[in-house]
Amino acid sequence: MADQWALVATELVKNFGSKCAVDGVDIRVPTGCIYGVLGPNGAGKTTTLRMLLGIIDPDSGHRELLGTTRPRSVSHRIGYLPEERGLYSNMKAREAIAFMGALRGLPWAEGRKRAEILLENAGLGFATHDKIKKLSKGMSQFVQLLGSIVHQPEFIVLDEPFSGLDPVNQGRLEKLILGERDRGATVLFSTHIMAHAERLCDRLAIIAGGKLRYEGSVDEARATLPMQAHYTPRDNDPALAALLPADAVRENGSWRFPVPESGMEAMLGTLLESGHGIAGLSIERPSLHEVFVALVGEKAVEEMEADAGEEIAA
Ligand SMILES: Nc1ncnc2c1ncn2[C@@H]1O[C@H](COP(=O)(O)OP(=O)(O)OP(=O)(O)O)[C@@H](O)[C@H]1O
């Protein structure tokens, strides 16, 4: 595997009894990029991440992480935030981070020093000497996250890192992920919250029902759908729907539809001749959200967004 790929996994399969959790997933993570694994609950994200790291073995398929087919042999070069959160509640934040570093071979004194800097940079310096049990759930999750990167790993894997964080801590986490990428690390995270992937990822995999629906760059994902037109007429006449493509969707007085293959000119000419006018018109690349809906269906996306909303409200 060339140095350009921090991770290459092909046709990973994992069954639990009769349940096929992951069914032929391919993932290629370029060195130094931010990579998202997106999918609804139960899609197979955690199982995929565990296979990539060698925590569990695939039933079949191939994986190569940092140049080795034995991922556990490079665990000291990896940072991992598992889906299950938990720290020793009587430890202070700084000690908890240094402890996690020590587990990956970082000397305690250095771990403490780095922990102070990490907490300060994350805006959590005030909690350095607080016991974990005194911190909010979101803050203690953040401390665990800092513990997973204190040894400055080359490859960082975060399983649903945004879940359970309020918007302020989600913003902190986005900043931290970008900072780690700028440091030279490769970051892979799973999420069912599209907005984070849209803002952060260079490349992504979309998984649903254990199957890979898309793997590639975010730009290529957007290019799989036609450009989207957003048109606002000057009037409110529902009859104009007949002049728009059949799949046009009404959104608060505007209409959204894929730009026809033949272009917009003829349609705009008809709209003007019919007196509907043009109060607003933009042509945009489809969002990641629209690509996701096209790949996994509106219902799965609505369920995901409801879950994300509940987490933020909790
Ligand atoms: N150890 C296990 N034994 C049996 N079934 C499992 C096991 N681990 C996962 N599964 C099943 O495999 C499927 C994929 O689970 P996985 O945890 O990988 O999904 P996920 O995308 O991470 O979802 P979530 O975000 O809800 O954790 C689910 O149907 C889950 O119930």
TrEMBL record:
Residues 7-234 form the ABC transporter domain. The keyword Nucleotide-binding applies. Keywords: ATP-binding, Nodulation, Nucleotide-binding, Transport. The keyword Flavoprotein does not apply. GO terms for molecular function: ATP binding; ATP hydrolysis activity. Transmembrane segments: none annotated. It comes from the Bacteria. Gene3D superfamilies: P-loop containing nucleotide triphosphate hydrolases (3.40.50.300). It holds the Pfam family ABC_tran. SMART domains: AAA. PANTHER family: ABC TRANSPORTER ATP-BINDING PROTEIN, ABC TRANSPORTER ATP-BINDING PROTEIN NATA. Belongs to the ABC transporter superfamily. This is ATP-binding cassette domain-containing protein.
